[in-house]
Amino acid sequence: MDPEGPRLIPSCDQERLLQHLDLGDLKSWFAEQRRTKRHQVALDQWHPRAAPDWLWSIGLPVLSLAEQWQGERRLLGFSALPGCGKTTLGLWIEAAAEVLGLSIQVVSLDDFYYEAQRLDAAMCGNPWDVPRALPGSHDLDLLISCIRQWRQGQEVLMPCFDKAKRQGRGDRDGWRRCQADLLILEGWFVGCTPVEPAADEPHLESPLTPEELEWRHRLQPLLASYEVVWRCFDQLWQLRPKDFNAPLLWKRQQEQTLLAERGASLSDSELERFIRMILCSLPSSSFQQMRADVVVEVDPDRSLRRIHLPRAIQDSLSSASLTG
Asked: Which residues of 281-310 are buried (b: 16+ CB within 10 A; e: fewer)?
């Protein structure tokens, strides 16, 4: 990444973001980032072709929030569909925080999947034959307990999940300590709340099957059970695709990278089922209508285009570009 490369996010969007976050005016904030050379920290964590908007409009504002919240326990929700780039962003945030002496830890909702037997029971019979990822596959009691203990200032042991175990079906794989001031919980449907499942989705190449529609209805009350977690967020940020079919491209690229780097990835059939699940299991309106504090539009090429502040009086989500 070239931190001084051209950016697409309008300066007026970033100005409003900084004001909304109580981080000061744009000119002073930019000067401070350059004075402290934060924009040059941990650049090796980014993809070489990553656009600098990821750094200036998401990464550095999050670090600034962490500095503002030092000494307090704050929980930030981060929602983005698979393959968008949230894992890379999370790795950079943790690496940059370590260099700068900031207390931040990124935790995936995926790490709270049930253990093997209960996970298999929860996923049994789904029409996409996916072994995990759907609402209902997570140990919410454990997650809520961890958040509450962490809020009280305790050092908490949080689970780790290894997706390679059990021939790719995955299982728990140890625990890691968490005592960070700022905890970021990321996941593909983080922040989603129940909506009336539509029988028709214009973005789908092939229509929903009766079984897929049945599971859409079945998943809504399960999704409702996650709201107790979402209510714990101090803020919720969302990377929202302008084209809801973008995960088709993102996930395929991600798997190609995994194959090249690690020699292992999902098979073609597994990948197709997984992508179909992402596009079909929850209505697209669940993502389009999410009332996040910060919404960043993402193009299919992972370029960031606009920043919206749905909870700010001066902003709204009426923009047609956010409707997929």
From this structure: bbbbbbbbebebbbbbbbeeebebebbbbb
Classify residue 148: in a domain, yes or no.
yes
Using one digit for the tens of pLDDT, what is the confidence trace for 235-278? Answer: 999 999 888 877 767 666 665 665 555 554 556 777 788 889 99
CATH for 226: 3.40.50.300
**159 inside domain:** yes
Instruction: Report pLDDT digits (tens) over 202-234.
Output: 778 889 999 999 999 999 999 999 999 999 999
Domain count of the fold of the chain: 1
Residue 119, SS3 per DSSP: helix
For the question of whether the overall pTM of this predicted structure is more than 0.70, the answer is yes
- Which amino acid, residue 47? H
Distances 244 to 117, 126, 286, 287 between C-alpha atoms, Å: 33, 22, 11, 9
Give the range of the structural domain holding residue 292, as residue numbers without chain letter.
Answer: 73-82+101-322
